[in-house]
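Readers outside the structure-tokenisation community will struggle with the description of the input data as it stands. What matters is that the chain and its backbone geometry are given together, residue for residue. For illustration, here is how one protein appears when written out as sequence plus structure tokens:

…
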Amino acid sequence: MINSYNITVRAAGCVLWRRSPVDGALELCLVHRPKYDDWSHPKGKLKRGEEPLAGALREVEEETGYRAVPGAELTTLHYLANGRPKQVRYWAAEALDGEFTPDDEVDRILWLPPTAARARLTQPRDRTLVDELLHQLHLA
């Protein structure tokens, strides 16, 4: 018998960024999930047979309302979630057009400068992705 707790949950997401419409400074998008009361990068579980990059872009649009252009793949994070192993693949992604609409899964988003985004992220593991994005954009 297969123990479902040994099956890795596959997920994908993006470190979503844009240039501020006010001053052109770099901003990162964080999502607030009321179920966990946390701030994170947009991400979610992959659908059966879904390619990770396609899933990452789908999750970004579902959670933030923004379409995105993917850039470099970032570090894949591995951790336990509800006692199960979870693997989340991430990409840098530049936000295009969009408009956020709150729902039960994500009730707020924030566009923050990188330093403020690092401080707001709930999980320390997510902070390393900010540093990696800055490196990819040649800003670190």
Q: What stands out?
A: The radius of gyration is 15 Å. The longest helix spans residues 52-64. Strands lie at 9-19, 26-33, 38-40, 43-45, 66-73, 77-81, 84-98, 108-112. Helices lie at 52-64, 114-120, 124-136.
